[in-house]
Write a structure and sequence with these properties.
It is a single chain. A two-stranded antiparallel sheet has the order 1-2. The protein contains 15 helices and 2 strands. About 40% of the residues are buried. Strand 1 and strand 2 form a beta hairpin. It has 2 domains: about 120 residues, no CATH class; about 200 residues, no CATH class. The chain starts with about 70 loop residues before the first helix and ends in a 10-residue tail after the last helix. The chain is mostly helical and about 425 residues long.
């Protein structure tokens, strides 16, 4: 159903209609007091009502769109089916993956084009409202799951992942990579500083990994952790570009999800970004610990559950803090998909993954730090240990070229607005 269309055949209230032959009677004498105003010329009336940005609010119009939800459901479905096929070798599961990929990406009649040219378009007249906005790329963040699913079928040598599908999907990914890197929308997203940029990096790195460009994927991730990541996490673990929003807990968790995804992608490529530090000496773990300490304050606590499992798997949980949190809030957490995904053995380049390998090789060195092989990028700001000293605030690099930066379409923030979040003291950790 097209936007604005209705399933009703009439715009009027349904009731008993008069016979068509009986016209309404006219009054011979006016009973209404004439209006003192004159007619207004069409040029003096509104022809459109511009949308007003309200942070954290979603326009109900979007409920008429099925694209974003379909992309999310498809990506989760192919991943679950690929895992099921890997474990059970049920061809029905691998066929489900192949069929979903065909329908969503490869079919000439139903497949999407390798771009998001009309993603999160803001309706209205004029050319500016005939294309999408930079925020639309976010709706394909499930692309990492698609890559994971196909990789599972590849490794399992599924007969349903045929050479023809492999070639067609490779071609699609190559075109999507080109669009991400060369289109105005793609370049705009790449210039941001918040979760939109972080998820953009996830997609671009995953797509390059899919086509076999591991050097390119590594370069994308290295660039992110050497640059934008430096300004995303304050010394306390706060994420100012997210906490300045109207739903800070949600956005902190959202960007953390993307940061963890980027670290996982790096781990798959033999890189350790788990120990990468921001300009203020904070790591991904610091960001999670801050979230757990400040709490949701009325928002959904469940947003953070998967990230607790991921950080526990990557960094270890020597004090049992993370397991205690999950046990308290998710009694069945070990039966959740996120727990299945997040095991130290799946993150061999993380601190906990290296320690586990060391334990397996020589139990006598249990718990020793094996991070000497870390590929942590050398950050341009020479970050220090967050526990050692306070780092003076400096405006994030994204403000070098503009007095304000865009967080969402039409929603801007200045350096002065972010400064208090960077300078917040580290909260007392009450989760231990």
């Amino acid at each position: 159903m097209l936007p604005g269309s209705s399933t009703s055949t009439s715009d009027h209230v349904v009731g008993t209609q008069a016979p068509a032959q009986a016209p309404a009677k006219t009054q011979t004498k006016a009973k209404c007091t004439p209006s003192p105003t004159k007619s207004i010329a069409p040029s003096a009336t509104w022809t459109t009502c511009p949308y007003v940005v309200r942070d954290g609010k979603v326009n109900p119009d979007t409920d008429m769109l099925v694209g974003p939800d379909s992309a999310g459901s498809m990506s989760q479905s192919v991943l679950y089916n690929a895992i099921a096929y890997t474990l059970q070798r049920n061809t029905g599961n691998s066929q489900n993956v192949a069929q979903a990929i065909d329908i969503f990406f490869l079919s000439t009649t139903t497949g999407m084009q390798p771009n998001v040219n009309f993603g999160q378009l803001v309706r209205g007249p004029g050319k500016a409202h005939q294309v999408g906005t930079f925020t639309g790329i976010l709706d394909l963040r499930g692309m990492v799951k698609v890559v994971n699913a196909i990789q599972l079928l590849r490794n399992a040598k599924s007969p349903d992942w045929t050479p023809a599908r492999e070639q067609a999907m490779t071609n699609w990914m190559k075109s999507y990579i080109s669009w991400l890197q060369t289109s105005d929308i793609g370049k705009s997203t790449a210039s941001k500083a918040n979760n939109h940029l972080t998820f953009y990096v996830s997609q671009l790195a995953a797509a390059k990994y899919f086509i076999g460009d591991t050097k390119g994927a590594s370069a994308v991730l290295q660039n992110y952790f050497k640059n934008q990541f430096l300004d995303q996490v304050a010394q306390s673990g706060e994420q100012p570009f997210e906490s300045v929003r109207t739903r800070p807990f949600h956005y902190r968790c959202f960007n953390l999800e993307a940061m963890i995804t980027n670290a996982k992608l790096g781990d798959q490529l033999g890189l350790n970004f788990w120990t990468a530090k921001s300009k203020y000496g904070a790591t991904i773990q610091t960001a999670l610990d801050y979230i757990l300490t400040v709490g949701p304050k009325g928002e959904q606590l469940s947003d953070v559950f998967p990230h607790v499992a991921a950080v526990s798997a990557a960094y270890g949980d020597p004090k049992g803090k993370y397991s205690a949190f999950l046990q308290k809030n998710v009694n069945s957490y070990k039966s959740q998909p996120f727990w299945f995904y997040d095991q130290s053995s799946a993150l061999p380049n993380s601190p906990a993954g290296k320690a586990k390998r060391s334990d397996d090789d020589d139990p006598s060195v249990s718990g020793q730090d094996t991070s000497s092989n870390s590929t942590e990028p050398t950050n341009r700001a020479n970050p220090v240990d967050s526990a050692s000293m306070a780092v003076p605030f400096a405006c994030p690099a994204v403000f070098d070229d503009a007095p304000s930066v865009e967080l969402e379409d039409g929603l801007f923030v200045t350096c002065d607005e972010l400064k208090p979040f960077f300078e917040m003291p580290s909260p007392v950790d009450t989760t231990v």
